[in-house]
Amino acid sequence: MKTILLFIFTFFFFCGQAADKVYYTEADRAVFDRYLSTMLTDKSLPTGELMVKTARFFLGVPYVAATLEKEPEGLVINLREMDCMTLVENTVALTRTLQSASPSFDMFCKTLQSLRYRNGEIDDYTSRLHYTTDWIFENEQRGFLKDVTHGIGGVSLPVSVSFMSTHPDSYKPLKENPSLVAKIASKEKEISARPYYYIPESEIDKLASGIKEGDIVCFVTTIKGLDISHVGVICRVGEKLTFVHASTTQKKVIVNEAPLQEYVEGIKRNSGIMVVRPQANH
Predict the structure, then answer these.
(1) 258 lies in which domain range?
(2) For a Cys-Cys bond, which of 123, 133, 277, 282 suits 227, CB 3.0-4.6 Å?
(3) What is the mean pLDDT of residues 86-107?
(4) How does pLDDT run across 68-80, given as a tens digit for each residue?
């Protein structure tokens, strides 16, 4: 079938409210249908196993950044091209959809919106969960995720996010709508006031027994004003602890060749990791 390049605008009713705008193509719907037919017999597997199988389903998919930047702000469904965060979001949303009694494309859309937007509602650009630590916090409150970093042995991590409000020209919606910058800055203060934990890069192998397949690994950055620079889905290849991710260097979704600790130590601006565990959809 020839891919339709124009975005389809469709509307749903979420939680009894007026629907939000959704962007997708027929090709995205076809990928979802193929995923469901491939994975349906595995739906009773533990959540961690489903996360890994789902992430691996996208091996070879091209790395493409900024696929969510559509105007007006709306839910973007893109299963053909991914960056590191959209791979993780799609993997969680698909896994939760698969675990439901009656998986459907509409349910996937609803779940993805709940993951990506504060309170699952789209107001404007600022309602998207741009900072990964905020994404973790909000989705832990909703019961979708659990930050297990502290329990594994993580230590306190000061977080001070400010990058978006101090670099508004780097974000088209902020550049064109200065009134949104104050909303972002207010949220940044709230995010920075929360307690966080991380596993320092030198401690990853030592604490590896607490890291499970299907966990989400979040790479802590030392770049001023940012929290997390990259994310992936933990997997094991033999005895090697590694991860599936949308690689900026390989330009596609891969199983990382280097072990997790070696990878982190090889990235100059990484200081360690956070570990987040997806929760079953019961």
Answers:
(1) 22-278
(2) 133
(3) 97
(4) 999 999 999 999 9
Please report the DSSP string for 91-137 in residue order: HHHHHHHHHSSS--HHHHHHHHHHHHBGGG---SGGGB--SHHHHHH
Does 14 map to a domain?
no
Helices (H), 117-237: 132-141, 149-152, 163-166, 172-176, 179-192
Residue 9, pLDDT above cutoff 50: no
Whether 15 is covered by a domain: the verdict is: no
Q: Using CA atoms, how far apart are residues 219 and 81, in angstroms rounded to an integer? A: 21
- Write out the two tokens for 41: 């017999």
Q: How many domains does the chain have?
A: 1
**Residue labelled with tokens 């959540």:** 47
Report yes or no on 5 lying in a domain: no
- Sign of the Cα pseudo-torsion (97, 103, 109, 110, in order): negative
Can you give the pLDDT at residue 282? 81
Position 253 in a domain? yes
Per-residue confidence band for 207, with pLDDT thresholds at 50, 70 and 90 = very high
The phi, psi pair for 262, rounded to 5°, reads -60, -40
Residue labelled with tokens 């489903």: 50
Amino acid present at 116: R
Structure tokens at 150: 């502290």
Distance (Å, rounded) from C-alpha 179 to C-alpha 77? 27
This prediction's pTM? 0.94
Q: Assign residue 250 the CATH number of its domain.
A: 1.10.3670.10
Tokens of 61: 């998919």
The 10s digit of each residue's pLDDT in 36-60 is: 999 999 999 999 999 999 999 999 9
